[in-house]
Specification:
8 helices; globular
Length: about 250
Amino acid sequence: MDLKDKVVVITGGKRIGRVVAQEVAARGADLVLSYRGSKQEADDTVQDVKDRRRRGIAVMADVSKAADCAALMSAAREAFGRIDVLVNMASVYGSTPFDDLTEAAWDRDVTINLKSAFLCAKAAIPAMRAAGGGRIVNFSDWLARSGRPAYRGFTSYFVAKAGVIALTESLALELAGDQILVNAIAPGPILPPPDMNPEEIAVVARATPVGRWGGEMAIAKAVLSLIETDFMTGETIRVDGGRHLI
C-alpha cells in the first residue's frame, strides 16, 4: 500500500507512537490519533503531522470500550472520508506477582492489551471494506511470539499478548478476501521504561545480541513495512535485536 493520501488511525501516540505518526505523515498519510489521558502529547503529535503538511486530528477515546472505538472510527470518516490503516498500539505493561493478581488487574491487562485491538478492528473494518482494502497492525510482545513467558509476574500481560497473536492470525484469515491484511509486531527492548535506572538499562542492552536498545525508529520501520506489503498477512514479526535467540 502506498500511503500517499491514505488515512491512518493510531491508538496511543506516546513515545513510540509519536514517531510512527511522524513517519506515516512523511509518506503522505493523514492521521487520526486516539488518546485517553494524554491530550497534550496527542496534540503535539498532531502538530508534528501538520508540520509535515498533512492533516491530523486527536480524538479522546477509551479503546477498551466498544462505543468509544465506534466513535473514534466515525470521527475519522467524518474528518477524512475513509480509513485505510489501523495501528493498534494502545497497551499497558507492568508486573504483578501471581499471588497478588486480582480479577481487576487481570481484566485491565486483557482488556487494554487484547480486547481493545479487537474492538478497534471491528469498528474500522467497514470503512476499509468501503475503501477496497486496508491494513491492520497489532502489537504483541517478543516473549509471546517466542512462546515462553520467561519472567515471573507477568501472567495477565503474557496471556493478553499471546492472544494478540491469535487474534492477528484469525482476523487475517477472516479478512483476506476483503484485501485487508492483518499482521503484528512483537517488540523487544525498544525504549527503557521511565523508571529504569542506568545499570538496569545496561543489563538489558548486554542481554540483547546486537548490544543495544532498538529505539523508536526500529518500530516505525517495521510498521511501515507491514503497511506497504501487498501479500503478507497473519504474521507476527519480532523486533527484538535477536533477544529471542539466547
